[in-house]
Write a structure and sequence with these properties.
single chain; 98 residues; 0% strand
Length: 98
């Protein structure tokens, strides 16, 4: 018996976003899994133009997440938990207009 994935196409990205903003997963888990899913698990051709834009913008923030304040102080590109949460909220709002 072959197991089928629980989510197809962009569903996994939407699920991660909803779980994160709903407080069911923390920022580190969200960032690690979103980066993996967007980069390797989701076929970009399956995304709508709006999803592609919103998720790419969020991906560009997620890859720079650092939970360490001293690291963010030294490396200005790194993002805080608050910045990731804001970017996730913006992505959710953008996707809601679809």
């Amino acid at each position: 018996m072959t197991l089928q994935p629980l989510w197809k196409g962009s569903e996994v990205l939407h699920k991660l976003l909803t779980d994160y903003l709903g407080g069911r997963i923390d920022t580190t888990l969200f960032c690690d899994n979103f980066e993996q899913a967007f980069n390797l698990d989701v076929d970009q051709r399956d995304l709508t133009p709006r999803e592609e834009t919103a998720f790419k913008r969020l991906f560009d923030e997620v890859v720079y997440f650092s939970p360490f304040p001293e690291e963010r102080a030294r490396i200005p590109n790194y993002r805080s938990e608050e910045q990731i949460r804001q970017a996730a909220g913006a992505a959710k709002a953008e996707l809601a207009t679809e």
